[in-house]
Design goal:
Length: 263
């Protein structure tokens, strides 16, 4: 015997109870399935987030280990190992932007330690930086190009890059990005700074002369041709008048004559 349920007002006929039960069962099944699916999605999301965090922690640990090994290489007695440490830090900087300020500070400290201005003598022949301190040249190369030149203003270094009181004579710095760098009192005699960007840099008391005055091939000082010196500080410079400045950008006429600006 089939049971019937009363139909709504205006409806024709009666609805079998079995149909009502089936509809209720189907609705309940749908709700339970939807809740299960939602729970599974939340579980998958938690598992995915957890896995991502674990991977991040593993990568962070690996980068820390690599960073420490590279630092150890910088202290090696082998110049080749030190150079390897420099470029290992540069590679870490490409992979880990948060570590870039620390790497900038580390490499700048290496340059200041290896090439103190106090060690500059009274003259005489000086080898190119690549020959006399290849690890320091490698550090300068890494510091003056991306990625280490990109986020340097966030570095703990003064002015973004502290190379003050350093001996950079005959350094190869062509196309170097030295924006905002602190080069106070630096020795730049016969350095190659062609097309370098020195915007906002501090060049006060810097030396721009020649390493061996009067010697053929070294009549002129620092090569600044087509370099950018916009807003650079150039107070009390040494021998800027002998530097090569053809095509320099951002150098005012009064600065070109250096009237009252040189020590």
């Amino acid at each position: 015997m089939t049971a019937y349920a009363a139909a709504p007002s205006g409806a024709h006929g009666l609805i079998p109870v079995a149909v009502v039960v089936s509809l209720i069962t189907a609705g309940a099944t749908f709700i339970v399935g939807w809740l299960n699916l939602r729970g599974q999605k939340e579980t998958f999301k938690w598992q995915r987030d957890h896995a991502t965090k674990q991977i991040d922690l593993m990568q962070s640990g690996q980068i820390t280990d690599r960073f420490m090994r590279a630092i150890e290489h910088l202290g090696s007695s082998s110049c080749q190992v030190r150079i390897g440490g420099v470029f290992a830090l540069e590679r870490i900087a490409r992979e880990s932007p948060p570590d870039r300020p620390h790497i900038v500070s580390t490499l700048a400290a290496l340059v200041r330690e290896r090439l103190p201005a106090l060690a500059v003598g009274d003259g005489g022949y000086v080898q190119v930086l690549m020959q006399r301190a290849p690890d320091a040249q490698a550090a300068m190369t890494a510091l003056c190009r991306p990625p280490l030149s990109d986020d340097r203003r966030d570095s703990s270094e003064i002015g973004g890059l502290n190379l003050s009181r350093t001996d950079l004579r005959r350094a190869s710095l062509k196309n170097a990005d030295l924006r905002g760098a602190n080069l106070w009192g630096a020795h730049l005699e016969n350095a190659d700074l062609r097309r370098a960007d020195l915007t906002d840099s501090n060049l006060d008391n810097a030396h721009f002369g020649t390493i061996t005055p009067g010697q053929p091939g070294f009549e002129r000082g620092t090569d600044l041709r087509q370099a950018t010196l916009t807003r650079a500080q150039l107070n009390n410079t040494h021998d800027f008048s002998v530097a090569l400045t053809e095509g320099v950008i951002g150098l005012a006429d009064d600065e070109r004559t250096l009237a009252g600006r040189q020590a």
